[in-house]
Amino acid sequence: MEYNFLELKNGIRIVHKPIKNEVAHCGFIIKTGSRDENIDQNGITHFIEHAIFKGTKKRKTHHILNRIDNVGGEINAFTTKEKTSVYASFTKEYFERALELLTDILFNSTYPENELRKEKDVIIDEINSYLDSPYEQIYDDFEDLIFKGHPLGMNILGTVDSVKRINRKKILSFIKENYQTNQIVFSVVGDISLKKIEKLCKKYLNEIPEKVNTKKRLPFNNYEPIQKEIEKEVYQTHTILGNLAYGTYHKNKTGFILLNNILGGPAMNSRLNMGIREKHGLTYNIESSYTVFSDIGLFYIYLGTDQKHIEKSIKLVHRELKILRDKKMSSSQLQKAKQQIIGQITLSEENNCNVMLGMGKSILLYNKVDSLEEAFNKIKMIKPEELQDIANEIFDTKQLSSLTFKPAD
């Protein structure tokens, strides 16, 4: 598959994947997330993601929202712990409209105080809605438990108190310190010529002043396993087990992505789903996840069940982990697992918006985009011994932490 790359004089990088489709997608992916905040700033990256829609030097909120909606397109944004993404989907003839609007809200937002006051209430409602959902809250609380005192442990949304403290001056100061042109990628997937993309990107982006990132992220290196139970007003018991895992550039990352998929990935035939839900009927929802940060990763297993079943459920989880530690997978088992994840990746390519966001992320992290063939070759090269070694490192019982929400007596 052909990918086109450009770099502007200010350091903003552009990546383009041509496809034959009436619908196109484009967006800015920025290497700034909640990890780049200090405690006093907690939630400001997510707040900025909301606030850029509240007015620019030439547009009010309704002008921003109508600009793409009026032609049937969509505009959106999201924040993670290491990135901010602002993007749009539209029919291909409106590419210039989308690029101009995204550039305007990202680089020319005015952050009017009256709009910021209203948006604080919206975000506080968002925080409270998460607190009402133990399934969602336990993930955030587990990360806080693991990364206690480190920016990776802070909630992306912030807290009610930290959001209330955000103001225009703090926003402008944070942007000046953290949004650098050499850490911004503009990504495009669509039936748009490279000549047109280059012309319009130079028209709208070339005059943005160059700003080079010199800030270093604080590493995390003081993990200690911890077990914690909290009584809550819940009907079910919710539990997460987990451990630190590999960062973006670690040689074992691809192997662990495969191993996690085998253990508790999205497929119904994952080992956790088959061994605990299907065989024993102990839980409706059980899954494992692997979150990859630039320098470290986090692995966790979530399950929700009745309090009377929790002990047996956790015992069965440990049995599945022990099998992966003690028993090397057969060649046929491994081949099926590889076929499955390759199929999942292929299906995900159907979502061109996600492809666009993934390309931008890849350029930020590696300054290149692997073809599907290159990605599949990495998977195909994984050996059973590698997976067993990874299992013995990450699934080490002595290194697992746990957090449980259990019904109050």
Q: What attributes characterize this protein structure?
A:
15 helices, Cytochrome Bc1 Complex, Chain A, domain 1, 19% strand, 409 residues, alpha+beta, 11 strands
Would you kindly provide a written description of the structure presented here, covering whatever features stand out?
This protein is an alpha+beta fold and 409 residues long. The protein has 2 domains: 4-205, Metalloenzyme, LuxS/M16 peptidase-like (Cytochrome Bc1 Complex, Chain A, domain 1), CATH 3.30.830.10; 227-407, Cytochrome Bc1 Complex, Chain A, domain 1 (2-Layer Sandwich). 44% of the residues lie in helices and 19% in strands. The strands form 2 sheets. The protein has a 6-stranded mixed beta sheet, with helices on both faces. A 5-stranded mixed beta sheet has the order 7-11-8-10-9, sandwiched between helices. The longest helix is centred in the first third of the chain and has 19 residues, at 113-131. The protein is globular. The mean pLDDT is 96.
Helicity range: 40-55%
* Largest β-sheet summary: 6 strands, mixed
CATH architecture of the largest domain: 2-Layer Sandwich
Shape: globular
Strand order of the largest sheet: 1-2-6-3-5-4
**Proportion of residues in β-strands:** 15-25%
Order of helices and strands: EEEHHEEHHHHHEHEEHHEEHHHHHE
The Rg value, from CA coordinates, equals 23 Å
- Kindly report the CATH topology of the largest domain: Cytochrome Bc1 Complex, Chain A, domain 1
